[in-house]
Write a structure and sequence with these properties.
The protein is elongated and about 65 Å long. The chain is mainly α and about 190 residues long. The longest helix has 26 residues. The protein contains eight helices and no strands. About 65% of the residues lie in helices and about 0% in strands.
């Protein structure tokens, strides 16, 4: 069986399951445009370019299951007064933005907690460290040493632990800086 026949068989099966085949969508740009149209129509909202880019950053992954789960969780919206929406009810733009803000905060907290756990650090201490960096936009190596101090490592092991930690923390800091430079962080670029 050729690849084309396998693909057509898969399309036929999905069509039987009431999926709509869209031969007009042939590349990523068209797919993203279609997603934006559907997302905005279903949620009755107009996203700015920046908001749409952040939405894509949050949901696009190589793991289709996780992307679908993220969208499903995001669709658990409430009205402005906090009561759950019933099927078919629309959302105000404020409710959508609040839902997105909550989702983003939860995702950021989980990402930071995973890094803290991986490197045996206190999550609150790591959060404070990251907040301090982003507030001043200055990376302080002494504060990194202070953060690692509870691990009670010798200088060589501490240096290795700091480098391993920064390998995970650098991308997070860069992402959260949103294009702004963090002074001193370039020392940990790979």
């Amino acid at each position: 069986m050729t690849e084309q026949k396998i693909e057509q068989s898969f399309i036929d099966k999905l069509t039987e399951l009431k999926y709509t085949y869209r031969p007009d969508i042939t590349n990523r740009a068209e797919l993203e445009c279609n997603f934006r149209e559907k997302f905005e129509a279903l949620n009755r909202v107009r996203l700015t370019e920046g908001e749409f880019t952040r939405l894509l950053d949050e949901i696009v992954s190589s793991d289709v299951f996780m992307a679908a789960r993220t969208l499903r969780e995001r669709n658990a919206f409430t009205r402005d007064d906090g009561t759950p929406l019933k099927a078919g009810e629309g959302l105000s733009e404020a409710a959508i933005r609040d839902g997105y803000t909550r989702f983003k905060a939860e995702k950021d907290a989980a990402e930071l907690a995973a890094i803290a756990s991986k490197h045996r650090l206190d999550t609150a201490a790591l959060q404070s460290f990251v907040d301090g960096i982003l507030q001043r936009m200055i990376f302080d190596g002494e504060q990194l040493s202070d953060l690692m101090a509870p691990l009670e490592l010798g200088w060589k092991a501490r240096t290795q632990a700091e480098l391993a930690h920064m390998e995970d923390l650098h991308p997070l800091l860069t992402k959260r800086a949103q294009g702004r430079d963090i002074s001193g962080l370039s020392a940990y670029e790979q």
